Amino acid sequence: MSAVVDAPPVAPAVDSRAARRPSSLALLLHNRPAALGLVLLILVALVALLAPVLPLPDPNATAPADRLKPLFSPGHLLGTDPLGRDVLSRLIWGTRVSLSVGIAASLIAAVVGSAIGLAAGYCGRFVDSALMRGVDTLMAFPYILLALAIVAILGPGLVNALYAIALVNIPFFARNIRGVTMGLARRDFVDAARLSGKSELNIVLTEILPNVLPVIVVTLSTTVGWMILETAGLSFLGLGAQPPQADLGSMLGEGRRLLFTAPMVSLVPGAMIFLIVVSINLLGDGIRDVLDPRLRSGALARPSARTAVDPGRARPSRAPAPGAVLDVAGLRAEFRTGSETFHAVGGVDLVLAPGECLGLVGESGSGKSVTALSLAGLVPSPPAHITGGSVGFGGEDLLDAPLSKLQALRGDAIAYVFQDPLSTLHPMMRVGDQVMEAVRAHRKVSREAAEARCRELFETVRIPNPEARMRAFPHELSGGLRQRVAIAMALANDPVLLVADEPTTALDVTVQAEVLRLLDRLRRERGMAVLFITHDFGVVSQLCDRIAVMYAGRIVETGPVKAVLDAPRHPYTRKLIDCVPVVGRPERELAAIPGRVPALNRLPPGCAFAERCERVRDDCRRGEIPLASVAADRAVRCLHPLAPGAAA
Ligand SMILES: Nc1ncnc2c1ncn2[C@@H]1O[C@H](COP(=O)(O)OP(=O)(O)OP(=O)(O)O)[C@@H](O)[C@H]1O
Prior knowledge:
By secondary structure, this protein is an alpha/beta fold. It has helices at 16-19, 24-30, 32-49, 87-123, 125-140, 143-154, 158-185, 188-195, 200-236, 248-256, 264-291, 293-297, 368-375, 403-409, 421-424, 431-440, 447-460, 466-470, 479-491, 509-526, 537-543, 561-566, 571-578, and strands at residues 2-5, 308-314, 326-337, 340-352, 357-361, 384-393, 396-397, 414-417, 497-501, 529-534, 546-551, 554-560, 627-631, 634-636. It is built from 23 helices and 14 strands. β3 and β4 (340-352) form a beta hairpin.
């Protein structure tokens, strides 16, 4: 048994720190701007809360003899205002008032607005129309005019300003929450709750509300600052806090007339408003990041145009495979989220000859898609990083190629077809236009020529009545037709390599058989190499020349399809094949594979399948296990492989 590939060892990554999920507070504090906002806000709130016990002069006690004292005067650290009142004392008491009013108004707006949004979004129809027309009416007036009108009716005063600010902000919450609720109300888990006999109110409170809550909290955290500003605005206009009570807005208003002679009187409350609003906004952004796991993992961050490749990555030591279309060696990719690292691809080798079809199979999460997407740098970074290996294509290593080269190859020499065309096709564009766009992205051709090419492609993939179908939108086509459109798009520029990631999983068996026949015909006619990702051994045996079985990010067995399926050598391949039902053999026992795939952030040393393997011995758990040649064009990553004659 000779070693085919000496892959660098997988780090025995049992890092207990990495395995722990960081708490929300830890994540919040990890975000520096948010942590700064939190600290500032806590400081301001603490000082405001402690106002009654701090040794401050009476904020409302006037002393005309002490009027407009400058900063750092004895007994008046921040000076005095035109009535001789201590500015520091008024600032602290005013901050207390402004914070309370801003937070109270936000809470009222959040509770009432969210209740309206939940009711409108969940009930729909008449309730939605009635509630939303009311909300639209509120939104139709400029907010400050509306607040002025409300205060004019109720009379000036801080409490009335609070009601006014809360009221004008209700539509903001109502609209946001209605939108989110409408999306959730049509989801399967809500139908399941209804089927379980839950009442509508119960569904709203236990199914919808918990899902909406992060949105409410995020909206709240970002609007408190805004409401403090609005309260200050009303007080500035003399409609909020009434003399002698201090709040930040009224202090600003009082200092306005002395802006040039005694600027500190207005600059001090202005600076405090700025500080509070900035710290709340920084904190609000941090809370949003923590509450949304997609933001935390980087999934919502705009991914860079290519997967990040570590500059000092481990390079393969083997010679390039002669004549191969694709020559992947020692490919390693990982996801870094927070303090955790998931080793999704751990040293994969793949070689594809022109016109060859290689089936990449393995359980869900084994790293098939990440491998396939890494070829053209399509795994989103953050959080992905390619940490090792090479991707030989067209005589160069694509991991070293500049972005412009990758962009020129994508959709041209390397094309992809995915499982769900509905999510990859543009919902608002006619399918013909999308295929034409794919052609024109890489070829300088006229619209007429692109249209003719599109028609030709639709005929190639056997879409009936191509003229009419070209004008259809994706949702107007059946699943099978949509997948044919996706294949036509992939073929638009005669790719040398087609990567098909479970392209038939969502289709029924008859359509699946048609699409497979189509792919088989196309690759034979065009000499196109196909990397076909699937869970389905039936599909592999029908379409592929060779098979590569993946487990926990590594190829564990590879060889010609018939040889591997007839007599698998790796116990994992054997188990996978045993899980497949065979028509006409009801007596055959279907054995589920016991145990689970190991966590990719805690891969064990040695064989990753050891825990689930009946043939495991001590040496399996020690050190690196190479992918070793066991016959012509066959290799297995196992120290104790099955005997060659052990037929499946
Ligand atoms: N954006 C991501 N952040 C963190 N981990 C990810 C991300 N994308 C994929 N992974 C992880 O990488 C591993 C490999 O995923 P991949 O999609 O390649 O599996 P797969 O074999 O194609 O599975 P399936 O057959 O279900 O599509 C999985 O454990 C997955 O959880």
